[in-house]
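Lab notebook, bench 4. Still working through the backlog of constructs that have no structural model yet. Next entry is a single chain of 153 residues. Request: give me the structure tokens for it.
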Amino acid sequence: MKNKDLKQVVKEKYGEIARQSKDQAEQSCCGSNSCCSAVDYTVFSEDYQNLEGYSPNADLGLGCGIPTEFADIRKGDSVLDLGSGAGNDCFVARAIVGDSGQVTGLDFTDEMLEKANDNVKKLGYKNVAFVKGDIEEMPLPGNQFDVVISIVS
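Model written out:
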């Protein structure tokens, strides 16, 4: 399969997932209760519920780990989340950087960006933004971020 075709399949799959509830997404082949493998990946499961900034509406249960716990993010930092989805890690990062920092999420799936922007509006954050773009050809200026996180699955 060509790179372009593979990216289109990924966009379509993540678009479907964005339109589902977290429970439905976790039952899909991308979720933690995957039907696609006999291997138990629960060691990679994450529990965001006790983290400051956690937003249940942004948690689609697709991650494998919590990158904000290992990224050494500090108050006032500018953070970029590659493959930000509905914004879950962005909102946790925002709690760390505070009002003086900035968090940008980059995703190439329209449905995920729509969900992320709906979430940021509901939360009222002024220092979290979501940008449409491909990780391989980012539409962002260089040398603008202190920390880059990603759990692209």
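Notes after review: The chain has one domain: 3-150. Strands lie at 78-82, 102-107, 128-132, 147-150. Flag for follow-up if needed.
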